[in-house]
Amino acid sequence: MILRSIYLIFIISLFLTSCQKEETTLIDEQNDEAFSDDDLYKSLMQSITSHYAGFDDMIDRSSCFSIDFPYACYVNGYYREYENQEDLYFLEETDVIDLIYPLNITMSDYDTAFIESEESFSALRNLCATGALYDESVSCIDAIFPMTMALFYSETSSFETISVANEQDMFLYIDTLYPGTTASMNYPIYVDVNGGDLIQISNNSEFKSVAQGNIPLCE
User: Fold this and answer.
1) What is the pLDDT along the chain (219 residues), one digit of tens a residue?
2) 116 with 171, same domain?
3) Of 129, 155, 170, which one is at a domain's C-terminal end?
4) 33 and 204 in contact (C-beta within 8 Å)?
5) Segments forming the whole domain that contains residue 203
6) Contact between residue 16 and residue 22 where contact means Cβ atoms under 8 Å apart
7) Same-domain pairing of 123 and 164
C-alpha cells in the first residue's frame, strides 16, 4: 500500500512537471512571435485592415472617411442617387457636387458619425486635412481571413486561441488590446497584393518586410 502511494505521488509529480514545462514552452513560443509590444507590427496591420475610405473621394473630398450607401446628391445641378461603389464610376474631377443631408459616414478607424449639415461635414474635412483623424489606409494589400491568434493573459496565467473573421475585427482588436495580454499570430497567414499576388507569411519579420516593401507601391 505504501509502495502504491509512493508510485502515485511519483506519477502525479511527473505529470505536473510536464504541464509546467509545456506551459513554459508555450509562453516562450508566444514571446518569440508576440506582436503586442511591437508598435510597428501593430501599425502596419492596422493600416492594412483599416476601412479604405478613398473610393469616394470625388464625392466627399476626404480620404479619412467614406459616405455610407445609399445617399443622394446633386451633380452639376442634377439629382443623383448612389447605391454602391459602381455608381461612382462615372464621376469626374470637374463635377460640381452638392451633398444632400443628413447622411452617415464611416471613418478609416471604423468609427461612425451622423452628419446633419455642410458645416459639420466641412469641419470633418478640415480635421482630416490637418492630420487630426486616422488616415493610414492601405488599398493594395488585403489580409486573407479568417486568422487565428494565441493569447496569454498574465493576470490569470491563462491561454486562449481566437479566430478573427474580418478586417474590421482585426483593426478593432489591435486597437483595444488589453495591457498585460500577450498576443501572437498563428502562422502562416496570407496577404493579397494588388488584387492577385497571394503571399504566404511565416513570421512577424516577414509580415513587416512584405508590408513595408509594398505599401510605397500603392497608388
Assistant:
1) 443 343 333 333 433 333 433 443 444 444 567 999 999 999 999 999 999 999 999 999 999 999 999 999 999 999 999 999 999 999 998 999 999 999 999 999 999 999 999 999 999 999 999 999 999 999 899 999 999 999 999 888 999 999 999 999 999 999 999 888 999 999 999 999 988 889 999 999 999 999 999 988 876
2) no
3) 129
4) yes
5) 34-50+139-217
6) no
7) no
Residue 43 within any structural domain of the chain: yes
Strands 78-82 vs 97-99: parallel, antiparallel or unpaired = unpaired
CA–CA separation, 106 vs 48, rounded Å?
Answer: 16
69 domain-assigned? yes
Sign of CA dihedral 149, 201, 24, 15: positive
Q: Which three cell numbers stand for residue 207?
A: 509580415
Total structural domains in the chain?
2
